Structure formats: C-alpha cells, structure tokens
Fold these 2 entries.
Entry 1:
Amino acid sequence: MDKAAATSILLKRLRVSTNIDEEDQRAINALPIALKQVRDEESIVSTGDRPSACCLLVDGFIFRSKVVGGGKRQVIAFHQPGDIPDLQSLYIPVLDHDVTALGDCVLGFISHAPLRALVRHRPNVAEILWRDTLIDAAIFREWICNVGHRSGISRTAHVIFEIYTRLKAVQRTKDKSFQFPATQVLLGEAVGLSAVHVNRVMQELREKGLLRFERGTVTILDEAKLKDVADFDPLYLHLDPAL
Amino acid sequence: MPRYFFDIDDDQFSISDTVGLDCPSLEAASKEAVRVAACIAKDLFSSGAGTRITVRVRDIDQQVFEATLLLKVT
C-alpha cells in the first residue's frame, strides 16, 4: 500500500458523490500523506485530543464512538475506505469523540497545514469537503431515527445495508458479500441492543433468508427484502452529486 | 468482575449467549437481564410474534437465576 493507493481511494469516493474536476484531483494528489498501519481496536484519536492531521481511511474499517455516563459506549458511525472520519478537526481543534480501528487497517494522515492551504487556494475543494461533512451529518440524522424508532431487526439491517451500499459505491463488495470484522457486541453498541439481542436478530435475518453474518463476512441473501425490512432509503447518503 | 451470560428463550428463538457481560454484582446482572428481556419484548410483543420471553442468567459454572416477561392482555 503506497501513497498513490491512498489518494486513489479518496478520489474514487469523491468522484462518486461530488463534481470534482481534473485540476482539483491533481491538487488532492499532490497532498502529502503519511501512511500508517494500525491494529484492530487500536485508538486513532480520542476525546480531548488536538489532532494536527486528518486521518484518511485507506483500507479496513474505523468506528467513531462516545462513552456515556455509566461507562456504556455508543458507536456513532462506521467508516469505509475513502472516508476522512475526523475532517472536522481541521476547524474544530478538540475532538469530542473517539476514533478507533475496526479490524486491522491502513490510514493516511494528511497534516492540517497543507489541507487548510489547499482549501483556501481552491474553493471547489473546500466545497467538496464541506459537502462531505454535510453528508456525514445526514448519516448521523439517519442513525438518530434508526435507534429512536426502528425495531431491533430493522435497525440492525439498516446499519448493515448502509455499510453495504457505501462499500458498493467504491467497489469494495464482492458479489453481494463484504468483509466486516465487527463483533456482535460492537454492532450492538451501534444499534443500542445487547450482544445477545443482536445474536437473536442475526438468527432471524438468517432464518428469513435476508442475510448471513459469519466469521467477519456479511452476505446479502435477498437485497430487496432486506432493504424493505431495514426501511432503507439511500437518499440520505447523497451518493450522486445531483442529490 | 464476574462474567454473566444471558441466554434467551422466547416464542421464536432459543439463543445461547456466547459473549457474556462483566457485571459487578448479581444485582447488576439481574438489572441487565430485565433490560435484555424488555428490549426483546418491545420487538416481540409489538410485532405480535410472541407473548413470553425468558432470560436465563448463568455464570461460568451454572445457571444463577431466570427472569420471565409475559404479555397478558385482559
């Protein structure tokens, strides 16, 4: 994995959801990126940190979380390759949540200074990154609705369908299958269910012939029905620049 | 902190908890059992797929107690 692979996945994702032109792509290509391998569950940045770089996820998964009173952890987002989960640190200096590796992953650190210079120099890049953080907020809105009102099976299906849809957009799925190294505990922390409840939901999803989740691999068995059970409308992902 | 396992048994599924949860006391484990049962009951009862859910709590050696939630409409 080299720097070219890092910019390539970032540009691939930006090309999907934004109108990015050749010159902007060249400017992003010229950004200095420091690659780093991190292990499963390793902390990347934590609450209270003042990061001096943004972290681009090149390969693997990242989750963001907050610990609430009583020590319970709420997972607030899962990130796929091409995402910059802490892009907000460019303008909000102190982090208000934790960013952690989900499985082994490859990160590309982009220092704030050159990124800020690029944003000032190229308003179109600024707009593209702004749009990206707005989509991030749209995903949070959907997650609030998810944990607030959907049933256990629906909310779990929704989170998995979201990951599947976003991975498919950057060609990181194989047929209808993808690697996802989350435990049932972690998935439970994302949907507000206990691990055993997630286990029950998984058995139900499997029995209904909708999806299988075994040994870190998710296989979508019936995409249309799963989407229906998940109450999933992809609009909030704004994957198309026209949306 | 001892680890407790929360096996569930309802009108649809019997599921053995393979992960467990560390609880500081038996009282904390019983609160967790109620939380698990109530959370599943919310789905099960409201969808009409069942009227009973039992959570069997065990430590690494044996079952320590069970909690049952019953829906009774009169």
Entry 2:
Amino acid sequence: MRYAVLRKVVQYAVFAGIFIVPVLNLMEIYFIRGSFISLDIGGLAIADPAMFFQTVFTGNLAAPLFASVVIPVIMALFFGRIWCSFFCPYTTVMELLEKIPPVRQALRRGKPRQNSKRARAAIFLGLLFITGIAGIPLLNLISPPAVLSVQAILIIKKTPTVEMLFIILAVGLEFLSLRFICRYICPTGTCLSLFITPRTLSPIHAGECLNCGNCAKICPMGVDPVSDLPSPFCHNCGECIDICRDKRKPLKWNG
Amino acid sequence: MRFIDKVRRLLNENPFYPSFKINRMRPPGAVEEGKFMRLCIRCARCIEVCPYRSLHRAGASDGAAVGTPYIYAEGRGCYMCMLCTQVCPTGALDKEVNEREEMSAGRAVIDKNTCYDYLYASAVAEGKTDGSALYCNICYNSCPLQGKAIYLKNMEVPVVTESCTGCGICAERCPTSPCSINIIPTGMSVFERETTDVPEFKADFNTDNIVREWQ
C-alpha cells in the first residue's frame, strides 16, 4: 500500500509540476526547465529516449541528446516502465478520469483485452519508418506525455495548439479499448520497454493462488499477472499486488 | 497554367519542404531551414524560456512545421536576449550565437509606397503643404541596432542595411496597416516570395531591387 501512496504522491506532484515549472520560469527561476521531451534539472539533462531514436532516423544525430537519454535508460533498466506509472501525465489524467464511477464503468466494460507484442513492434517500427521518410521528427505528435507537457507550457505562456487534439482523440479511444495509446501507440512507452531485462523490477506470480482473476481485471494495461509476467506491457503500477487478497502472497515484487 | 508548371508547383509545395512566409522568422541562431526542421524535436524549451513571449509554437496552418518555434513579427518581434539559443538541446539553435549582431533571422524591407516617411519625402519634393503628410521614424527609433541596421538617409527616410538581423521589432511597431516594413526570413527565395499569400507584397515591390539588397 505504501507503494501506491508513493506513486500517487509522485504522480500528482509531477502533474502539478508541468504547470508550475513554466510559472517559475516566468518568475525567472530556472532550476527546472523544459518539457518531457527535453528536461533540464539543475544542469542535469534528461531527454525522452524515443525522441532521441527519431533523430537517428531523421538522419541528424543530435549529439547532446545522446548523453541525456542515459538517465531514463538506466531508470528503465532497473525499474522498468516506472516512467509510465509514476511520471506520465497522461496516466495521471486517465486515473483521475477513472475516479468518476460512471466513466470508470464505461472504460472498464467489455471483453478482456489481448496484448500483442508483435503488433506493437510493427507499429513502432512503422512510425520510425514514416519519420525516416518524412525526414522530420513526428513522434512528438503522438507521444501523450510530450504533448501534455508542451501544452501545459503553452497554457501558462500562450494558448494551446492543434496538437492538443491528439490527447482528445486518445481519451476518446480509451472508451473503445482501455489504454490503447499506452499499449500500442505511445513511442515513449514502447521505447522504454525495450530496456526491460529479466532482472528489472516487475511484479511476479510465484506459487499457488486462488485464481480469482481480480488482478487481471484491475490491470489497466490488460496484462494477466497470473500468466503474462514479466511483460513489456506492465508499467509497474502495483495495482495487481494491492488487490490480491490471497494470504500466501503469490504476487510480489521481484526486486 | 501549363501541366509541367502544375507538377512543379505541386512538388515544390510538398509539406515536408521548408516553407517561408513574410514576417514569420525562426528564433535567433536557427540553422538553415531544412536542417532546422530535421534537428528541432519540438520540445518547446525555447518557447518556455522566452521572457518576451515572442516565440510561438507553429499550429495547423504551418503544415509540417507544426510544433516548431516561430517569431511572428507583426505580433511581437524578437528582443534578442539570446536565452533560447542556450537551452536548445539539439543544436537546431546554434549555442554560439550570443550577440545581437550575430542573429540572422531575416532582413527588413521597406515598402516605399506606404511608408509614412517616404510619402512625406515625396510630398515635400512635390511641394505639398496641406499638412496631411506624417513624419514617423518609428522603425528607426525602435531598432535595437539603430544607426547600424537602419539609418536615416538625408535625415529623412529610413534605409535598411546589411546589418539588419531580422528581429522584427520595426514590423511590430510599424503604425501603417498592413505593415510598411516587413521581414523577409532568411532562406526565403524570390520564387517563394512570388508565391506568397500576401498579394500586395508582390505588387508593391520592385523585385529586382529586393534581390539586390538581399544579396
């Protein structure tokens, strides 16, 4: 439960942060600067790995970006897709929406979802291919955390631009298939899951359990924790561990 | 229009090719337009850091450039504080550009048919004394590189020189509507100027004259 509290605190702090940082910048406090595409915390450069990969494909390797993806990659190697569950503002938006009971009902109805690693890889490669042909960065248009953090800056300093439509489209898609964007489209999430190794932090299912199916029902990413873990779709939100009522603790962190 | 011309126009207006518009410039230190479009990852850090809110994020009307930073001179020019060149993570804005004189976003061009100063000068030359002519000088007075980028010829009419950085402050302040002083962004060719969506612009200028000034 402590994990869930920590996660919520970080989520809300980051979500507030994307609006507070531009305000601080207006007050000429430049400790944190930038958006989730490229962030600068006290001189420490952090960049979105997916945005780095696309500069490789557009034929212009941006050298300063190379050093700044190190921190996210190390984070992904140790903690998996913790970015998605702790920091991504889109996840926060969706979880806030799910707090409204009728919305949650509408989002969670329907058949259990199937995750296809192959389809996701094909979509990611296809997107990189299109970016390569166009010769200009395009992945920033369909990465929800990138769009949201940039639009937050624009909301504070100017007016939001047309890119905001993607978020509206994405939330609309959620009602057809929960977290469709997170599972298949988001280049940032796909890119981070490339760094998941067997030793990466992940919930694992070991030993006997009651087979109640609650964990599979609660999982926002459509992973069945009994059979699928560790999965590149799992973003370590820990909800399956929290809902498990089995005293034998079949679900636990592998950490 | 001949068929080949249609094909040429279609291909030249490919949305992934650099496109230019009058009074729409890249931030200071921007590399050549085609390279800029490839390098810029649309992270909005320059927009965030701009204390004058001069930088805008391109919207749907800018085609494939959506998300890239622009200065719209008629709205607000660039005050050349050079904060944006320092935060760009990819080198789309050259970090080495620190001085105002090093900026080359474009070049101001004065429309001699509508500029108050030129109208005043011609009124004086014709000997009109009805008092309708205005003497303005706002572009000269607002220029951050006053005397260098713009000077008053015969203490009468403003003339833009090679040193103009294209910051757009003159276009922002110009009292006529539409602006009598416009910024041609760096990289904009004569061909593109002719296909621009500002028709008066074509008609009012002697193209040969602009090209000579420009080169």
